[in-house]
Write a structure and sequence with these properties.
mainly alpha, MetI-like fold, 266 residues, 12 helices
Length: 266
């Protein structure tokens, strides 16, 4: 009579079969792929050289500028919105909730369109400081502030109430206790999700093309698409995508490390 396999043995055999199938699929794909065509279409070095050094000196620099300015403005707007959501004044809570629901519900593409076309129509002659850079920063800030507001609200609610009570017992006013005690702790708690928000904002900056940028204002996605159209080769898009990964992968790793440290209580 054949002995029954133990659960651990069955699990080991199942895992081995899965690995074998995965390896077989990868080998088959490698063997049947047309590598010369892939190289010519997606990794053409001659086409890639046409995008250098502008890929880094113009497109990447602009992408970083758009992202950092939008993030900074979103941070500055998101924190007051979070405080308004937790306010005892009902109209403040209503305004903040309405803002969050609207700007979290609308696609970022719509926000860019509203900034690019809606503002000039609603306020003739009005121009944001910085031109396109100001418009992009405002659009990204409006989007990110809605998400950051909810992140900050969660962080503020995670701070033990005893912290506020202890500060008030020492004679601090409510406002001073919030600024000196509660908000710093809340910001520290929400650093990992705020880092993830930076990654998302970095990718949302690709919507800048809607505003009609010039060759000196392009970001990575627009730069790659324009060069791909000019050369009739998608290699520049691959280059732009790889450049995005050079920024987003380290940021994602940083966010995971921060979450791990926070989980250990460090």
């Amino acid at each position: 009579m054949t002995a029954r396999l133990s659960p651990r043995r069955r699990q080991r055999i199942s895992r081995g079969v899965q690995y074998a199938v995965l390896i077989a699929v990868v080998v088959i794909l490698v063997l049947i792929a047309d590598w010369p065509s892939i190289q010519r279409s997606f990794f053409n070095l001659e086409v890639a050289e046409q995008g250098l050094p502008e890929l880094f000196t113009v497109a990447l620099v602009n992408t970083v500028i758009y992202t950092v300015t939008g993030y900074a403005l979103g941070f500055a707007l998101g924190l007051p919105l979070a405080l308004m959501r937790l306010s005892s004044v009902a109209p403040y809570r209503w305004i903040a909730r309405l803002y969050v629901e609207i700007f979290r519900g609308l696609p970022a593409l719509v926000i860019f369109l509203l900034i690019g076309t809606g503002l000039p129509i609603a306020f003739p002659g009005f121009a944001l400081p910085g031109g396109v850079y100001g418009s992009v920063a405002l659009a990204l800030a409006l989007v990110s502030a809605a998400y950051m507001a909810e992140t900050f609200r969660a962080g503020l609610q995670a701070v033990p109430k005893g912290q506020m009570e202890a500060a008030r017992s020492l004679g601090m006013s409510y406002s001073r206790a919030m600024v000196s005690i509660v908000i710093p702790q809340a910001v520290r708690i929400v650093v990992p999700p705020l880092t993830n928000e930076l990654v998302l904002l970095f990718k949302d900056s690709s919507l800048v093309f809607i505003l009609g940028v010039t060759s000196t204002q392009v970001e990575l996605a627009k730069f790659g698409n324009d060069l791909a159209s000019a050369t009739a080769n998608p290699t520049p898009i691959i280059m732009a995508g790889a450049t995005y990964l050079l920024i987003t992968i380290p940021l994602g790793y940083l966010a995971r490390r921060l979450e791990a440290r926070q989980g250990k209580g460090l």
